[in-house]
Predict the structure.
Amino acid sequence: MQASSSAAAASQQSASEPLRSAHEPNARTQTIIKFVVVALGIVMVAGLALVIGRIIYLASAPPAQPVASSTVSSNQTLQLPHGAEVRSISLSGNQMAVHYEMPEGSGIAVLDLATGRQATHVSIVSVPAGN
């Protein structure tokens, strides 16, 4: 009986040893894990530096559109044809485009806000089909 119990204890001990050694990392595994942790730390620091650099770059870049000059008069007049109804107005930099409609057709007038003069005028007319 004693022989069987010592054999059982030896088999339990040998069976539990592979489990214990499987959970204990060896020196090579620890070195690899340390390398991965250091590499990921470097990647995180580089990414943070990249984000901060991009923010600084965008903050110091000139604006995409020119800012309207302060010499723009607050009282300007755009003369549209008699009977014209304004449909939409768009502003881009120092220019304002006014889309209007009349019984004869529609058009677009562009006003230069810096000078107060009409920059251009485009008439939009309907052409009958077949012409």
